[in-house]
Amino acid sequence: MAFRADRHAHIVIIGGGAIGTSVAYHLARDGAKDVLLLEKAQLTHGCTWHAAGLVGQLRGKKNLTRLMQNSVAVFDRLEEETGQHIAWKKVGSLRLAGSAARWSEIRRSMTQAKGFGVECHSLSADEAASRFPFIVKDGIEGAAFIPGDGYIDPYSLTMAYAKGARMNGARIEEGVTVEEIVIENRRAVGVVTNGGTVSCDILVNCAGLWAKRVGEMAGVPLAAGVVEHQYFLTEKKLTLDPDLTTLRDPDNNFYLKPDTGSFAIGGWEDGSKACWRGKPPVDFGRELFEPNMARLELFALPAADRLPALNEIGIQTVINGPIPVSADGEPIMGRAPELDNFYVACGFTAGIAASGGAGLALSNLILHGDAGMDLWPFDIRRFGKVHSQGRYLDERAVEAYGAYYKIHWPGEESQAGRGLRRSPLHERLAARGAMFGSKFGWERPNWFARPGQEAIDTPSFEGKPGSFDAVGEEVRVIRERVALIDQTSFSKFEISGPGAEAALQYLAANDLSGPPGKAVYTQLCNDKGGIEADVTLVHVATDKFYLVTGSGFGVRDSHWVSRHLPEGVSLRDVTNRFATINICGPKSRDVLQSVSDDDLSNEAFPFLTAREIEIGDARALAVRIGYVGELGYELYVEQEYAVHVYDALHHAGEQHGIADVGYRAIDACRMEKGYLYWSGDITPDYNPYEAGLGFCVALGKGDFIGRAALERIKAAGVTRKLVSFTVEGFAPFHGGEAVIADGEVVGTTSSTGYSYQLGKTIAFGYLPVALAEQKSFRIEAFGKAYEATRGPRTLYDPRMERLKA
Fold first, then answer.
1. 677 within 8 A of 751, measured Cβ to Cβ
2. Confidence category of residue 644, pLDDT binned at 50, 70, 90
3. Which one of 323, 346, 575, 670 is CB 3.0 to 4.6 Å from 229, fit for a cystine?
């Protein structure tokens, strides 16, 4: 029965905090008609009202920094535009380094800031003390000062968003609680509230602390947790310069905002308390928890060491309130994959600072289908149901909260919620020294400790990580002998039914035509030609394909595909059905042939062939493809036979020096080969021609999504190109470094790695096409400029002779 409502609104927003009101403001400002915001209590009454209000722009990823930059741009104009005072104090921020490792981390951030266009200055301890005279300089290695940062009053900011929304025609209703969401045919068609029913065309979940609960009403699992967060206000006994900067001292685990004659000081201590499994009671209101002085001491005492004035004044007030923290500590944004008209903006631990940029991005996504930037680091589809499970989410949220000010080492791994998903090969690999990482809940081997090597991961910013030599040996195994790689965590989907081939031809940029028995590497593009996904499609039977993609991209990619499949063509997740074993290296055919009666010769089984074969006493779908640039086969094996197949290959390969290798070796090899990584090198912000993937675009095959745009791009020519850079020897690159030509920043690096074959550091990055043929550049890292040479995209086996041997 169709939903019949008391009234209708085109767009309904649930939640009246800084995020919800910002979304309403930006929607209305951009011309959206009939926008209705529903708030169950009063505006700001979730966690906005007790937020500290610090604003910091610099983040570890380019588009996250852009989001914060966009917020500052909104703050700069909002008061004049609305006439509502917002107490925006653009006094800058000072970040101290109290250790050599922290100074490396901060200098890396400053290098990224240069590439991102954020003004940032490196200061000595004396210069830092001149900007913030209350600190003691002991132990300060250096500091970063960002003039565009500051602090703002969260209540006033929210009221300004609300006023701006109303000025542009939006309606805001307080005291209206959403009690039920009505779903029909993959659409949220309306809400049932304590004040009646409202139908809608678009529903937006900005419910803050209650976002997970609201998501469940719509059948949308959200990895949005809630934890306790404390800060305190000192007694008002200080004489402060009105333009005193904000302060962050992550080694002492505290942040500071100047207040009227006092400081507001908070921190990110370990062991915070998770609340309500992420689902606060609906009637929880403008409330706080009792202070936890034991946890408060974890940042208050170190703060007093840095700020001796704190020993002379008392604490006036302790604020202990709930705040959102997602399973990885980053916000959750986008359209939910389960529904066609349900959008989400929640999980904002730094919601005040992000509110302007987040409101703009989500408004763009709703009204124009494009956020204006790739939001993958925030994307709701980076999570699955596993991440929203109550106990798992609590563990991850508490860890992410406590890690907020910890040093974020390159390649760091979460330790909470580990061991959840394990390949059938897990115990075999653990016994052989695997150092596991985690991706989408899966345990995956990053690298293998060598005999006598301590099995500990020791990362580094400016030096070689502890795994460096072990990974080098694994690369040599791939390049010279034969390797086994457990890639069971691949996301795998079966697409089948009458018309499956035609449907995928319309989705894929490459040509899938021809009989079954082959694999096709392709991009899935949007209408603008941007790369939405980078996948392998395996044609296994008439009207039956497998789509294979990265472990963390399965939700996103399957959502994109399922949205475009016609009736009668189905998509089914078969990730857990198949283990995936990659056997690769120049001796891989010899090993595989020795345990199979099928003809695996190059003539019978050429590159990109896909066929079922016998392996020992079992069978597998063998696909001659890989991500390391060597002869190799991906073997898709029913889970119950995986250990048998692995053991058979290992035994047969002993005479050839077979060894297990991990994902870090894969990454080193794919850099040498010029293979790209979606979310780093390619995203919806880039098209195949810019990325050097024009060979995957079959303009002559007929219509497909993005074809018209790609035709125009090809005809007009691109304005930027992805290129490779090499630096002699080892350079401490981690991505995001500024690329410099003639003293000017002309780009930033995307993927980076070390080539064990060449003895060089490799970096990918986009250059303006006018510079793409220039040879000499500089890449800046940790305050040092490295001479870099632009080289060919494929540095290893450019003619693919080894791959096709």
1. yes
2. very high
3. 323
